[in-house]
Amino acid sequence: MAMVFGRAFLAVVGLVLLFGFVMLQGGQETLEQVREAVLAPDAGPENILALGRHPELFEDRNVQRSLFRALRSSDQGLLKAVFELCFRNDSLLTASPIVRRRFDNSFLGSDPTRKRLLLEVAERSPDLLEDLRVVSLLSEALVDEDSELSATAREIVSANPALKSKAALAEAWARAESTDPELPLPDYERFSTQVLPILQKLGGDAMACIDCHKSRTVLRLPVPDESTDPEELKKFYYRSLLRVIDLQNPQESLLLHKPTKPEPPDPRNPSTPDTHPGGKRFEPDSEIQRTLLEWIRSGRSSGE
């Protein structure tokens, strides 16, 4: 009797374990399942986001092509999912330059809907609002002619007032509201006479800052053409530099340190605060760095 009971007990335990194993297997997505779902013509946002749990798939060329196509989708849900994936996974942008370029172009292009979706994705995460790409986009969106885009930017900055401590957003908010900036910003005339020549100066590689930064997502310095108004271009350069300075800690400004960093060993890698794809442009504690620091510290008083 005891033997029969023992066998019955073991059988029940075996069935429970088997059922648990089956349920566990059924609840886990396999690498191939995620890959096939992303490559399917009807791939949805949940399939795109699932890639974040399997970063090893970022090296798959077919997956890269699928994401590349998704970045041109008219499906706003799909677009927001792939934007989220790109924001959260630098390794994806490193593995796929074509995805990185198309993602960057979403910040730079003329489509206000795509820019609005980028901001809506960033709005959900406080850390993304600190991303300089988002700060740069917000500074432009606040004064954009598209009312829906500018309204989205205004709502985000209003809900996150700490953003106004950033020079670029303080300046853009003041323009949008037709008021004086709430912060003392670096002097514009000193920028014109001392900083602008640094941006235009040729380095040892016969390149100037404006040559390499004509289409960057943060420090963007477009090259002028015959129709460009010189004063408007100068103002654009000034506002662009505001994105890479720190008014609270001027000596920590990205503008001062990034150009002193060596070129990254792998040219595929996206630019980071610790690397400068354009190579070293000036030395630490050099005359150029001191000039830039003095400019950052120079402020207009509210009465001027």
List keywords for this structure.
304 residues; mainly alpha; globular; disordered C terminus
* Oligomeric state of the chains in view: single chain
Along the chain, the helix and strand elements come as HHHHHHHHHHHHHHHHH
For the secondary structure, the number of strands is 0
Give a short account of the largest sheet.
none
Mean pLDDT across every amino acid position: 86
Terminal-residue CA separation? 99 Å
- The percentage of residues in β strands lies in under 5%
Count of DSSP H/I helices: 17
Helices, strands, pairings?
Blueprint: H1 2-27, H2 31-39, H3 45-50, H4 61-70, H5 76-88, H6 90-95, H7 97-108, H8 112-123, H9 126-129, H10 132-141, H11 147-159, H12 167-177, H13 188-200, H14 209-212, H15 230-241, H16 254-257, H17 287-297
Helix pairs in contact: 5-8, 8-10, 8-11, 10-12, 13-15, 13-17
Structure commentary:
- The protein has 304 residues and is mainly α.
- It has helices at residues 2-27, 31-39, 45-50, 61-70, 76-88, 90-95, 97-108, 112-123, 126-129, 132-141, 147-159, 167-177, 188-200, 209-212, 230-241, 254-257, 287-297.
- Helix 5 (76-88) crosses helix 8 (112-123) and helix 10 (132-141) runs parallel beside helix 12 (167-177).
- The longest helix has 26 residues, at 2-27.
- The chain is globular, with a radius of gyration of 25 Å.
- Residues 1-27 and 300-304 have low confidence and may be disordered.
Summarize the structure.
With 304 residues, the protein is an all-alpha fold. It has helices at 2-27, 31-39, 45-50, 61-70, 76-88, 90-95, 97-108, 112-123, 126-129, 132-141, 147-159, 167-177, 188-200, 209-212, 230-241, 254-257, 287-297.
